[in-house]
Amino acid sequence: YHMRVHDQDVADVLMCPNPHDYPNFDDFSFTPRKILHRELPCFVLKMFEELNFIEEFRIKKDILTRFILYVKKGYRDLPYHNWLHAFSVAHFAYLCLKNFQLVEKGYISKLEALAYLISCLCHDIDHRGTTNSFQQQSDSVLASLYSSEGSVMERHHLSQTICTLNTEGCNFLESLNRDDYIKCLDLIKDMILATDLAIHYRIHSKQSAMALDGYNKNNAEHRYFLCSLLMTCADLSDQTKAWPESKKVATLIYTEFFTQGDMEKEMGKEPANMMDREKASIPDHQLDFLTQCCICIFKILEMIFPKAKVLVDALKKNILCWETSKMVFERLGLEGKTSYEVLT
Ligand SMILES: Cc1nc2ccc(C(=O)NCC(C)C)cc2n2c(-c3cc(OC(C)(C)C)ccc3Cl)nnc12
Ligand SMILES: [Mg+2]
Ligand SMILES: [Zn+2]
What we know:
By secondary structure, the chain is mainly α. It has helices spanning about 5-15, 40-50, 55, 60-75, 85-100, 110-120, 130-135, 140-145, 150-165, 180-195, 195-215, 220-235, 245-265, 280-305, 310-335, 340-344. Helix 6 packs across helix 10 and helix 11 (about 195-215) packs parallel to helix 14.
């Protein structure tokens, strides 16, 4: 496995000349997609330092840096499921750890916090811009590997994460004691698999019940539900940012969906409406997704962490914007434009 990351690349990140200063880096309103791309690796390092993980787990910065650079290389150049998505998801995890004081207030352990940040960074490694069902349909190698257990893509992201950790000079977790190391990998597995929409639908009602009963940190199931909720919130965090941001991200997601639809047509399959650039109504589908899926997840978060109200409010604002843009779409649509043309 040739060293695709050179020692000089690691040194460049470690010496990262004082990275651009973003005064609201710790706020939920901050949009991580605005950070200078070449500075992203040193901001990942900064988050590990800010959260005191380097000290707490005696992490060697050069090994962590090489791991970060390999993870970055592990992401493909796709419209949405790329390194910038991974970074923005990890940044949201950082915001939750800081703003909700997840460890300080005893909601989760330090080890769970470390696993949370790592899982967010790695949760979509080597994504191909296609869904789990497309893996089955196209009879992909990943489907043959994982379809018997389900969560095909997520099992691949997990496998890539473990392989990266086992790459020469990348295992920054080797400084953990044996029990913590095994526990950390176990947590990373649960957290990355939790980003499968199917798993989310399966546990959603139990997460809701947990929030209504009141979170109990001594209940192992509650901790699993909270970590899963924190993963899905991070994965959807673009939708809690200002309208221009969340609208732009939706466009990127549909670019991937429509490319998959085109491939399905070439395979002689009928794509789902949402994947068909001729049939999809983006505002309608986005409204469904935000009102049926997103807002419910963030409302559960708010029940546990009242400070998450700002996130629910931002989501509600974006839903309103989709309602408004729907009327614009309808008017322009009458002039024969597809919803994609109107949106971009
Ligand atoms: C703005 C926005 N619109 C979306 C509209 C539809 C879908 C979708 O997958 N529909 C189902 C079909 C394809 C079988 C996902 C959307 N989506 C996600 C997202 C969330 C994911 O999973 C968790 C985090 C567990 C919810 C997993 C993957 C993705 Cl791309 N992130 N942002 C979005
Ligand atoms: Mg994913
Ligand atoms: Zn993701």
